[in-house]
Amino acid sequence: EKGGFDHFMLKEIYEQPRSIKDCMRGRIYPEEGKVQLGGIKEFAEKLKNIDRIIIVACGTSWHAGLVGEYLIEEYARIPVEVEYASEFRYRNPIITEKDVVIAISQSGETADTMAAIEMAKERGATIFGICNVAGASIPRLTHAGVYTHAGPEIGVASTKAFTAQVTVLTLMAFYMAQQKGTITTSKLIELLTELDNIPDKIQIALESNDLIKEVAEKIKDSTNCLFLGRGSGFPVALEGALKLKEISYIHAEGYPAAEMKHGPIALIDEEMPVVFIATQNSSYEKVISNIQEVKARKGKVIAIVTQGDTEVKKMADYCIEIPDANEAFLPLIATIPLQLLSYHIAVMRGCNVDQPRNLAKSVTVE
Ligand code: F6R
């Protein structure tokens, strides 16, 4: 059932070109510059007039929410707040009938996310779900929703579910932009044409597997690891750190790269690997200066870079290339090498990657 792979996690990492295609099927029309989301169609009018979106989720799904925030604010120009479901439910948050709450959950059974939905619903908000498991509790609690269609995810650490959640959020951002008129058809044609090619780019990213294994060998005995990124590279860094800690039990932290000098820089010495999302986009130059700061303190730099990069290569100890893409789609590609890196480190350390200690696939108690 592992399809020739050693673990479900690896199989699921390799499924991503296909799972993302499945997620987009019938929803994008690149030639026409159109997005169709049948699941939330009946709210199309309402979307023209909403004041705010609140995203609620836990864990990896919360990281997907942070990517969603960048995309929805950028393209649909609707203010977005991303909340841990567990914190949101126990505050007395301000929610009105003009708010849309998007609950993200792979399993559709997470206790805190369900409680957050119930509270927001009582206060009159419209609730959308982004779930992977059809017919689970969360899809039944929400007013409308969009399934991720990633297929069953067996590995406890979320991989293909995360990229499918990000894909749905990308589609939602474009759909809302289309409804609100904050994007032109020609821009949508351009973006959707590129989105349609993302599965091929993920396939190319997967081809760095052997190189990533070599990097894993070099850092597998570390006790700590930092992951740094800016813009939409920041949630990618958070997700990279979470993956590493949950399956390899190495302590890891994700930070916005610029926050490093406000504290974490004190941790850097020759023992500390620092993984940078250093692709060529609007924050490239800034990330380069952050890399210099780490190198000046003898940290070991592992950089995720755009194919053909020369600048970062001069400084980093190890570079892993990914295909160039519009910044909007960066998280979908940059996440792939980080999943593989955690996987190989965990295997080398003899960990049970598919069933890490203390974790469960669905967290049905708070
Ligand atoms: C991490 C992971 C967890 C889940 C979290 C939410 O790899 O799997 O952090 O993302 O427990 O679960 P769902 O998405 O099922 O609500």
TrEMBL record:
Main localization, broad class: cytoplasm
Transmembrane segments: none
Catalyzed reactions per annotation: D-fructose 6-phosphate + L-glutamine = D-glucosamine 6-phosphate + L-glutamate
Top-level enzyme category: transferase
UniProtKB keywords: Aminotransferase, Cytoplasm, Glutamine amidotransferase, Repeat, Transferase
Function text: Catalyzes the first step in hexosamine metabolism, converting fructose-6P into glucosamine-6P using glutamine as a nitrogen source.
Name of the protein described by the UniProt record: Glutamine--fructose-6-phosphate aminotransferase [isomerizing]
Gene label: glmS
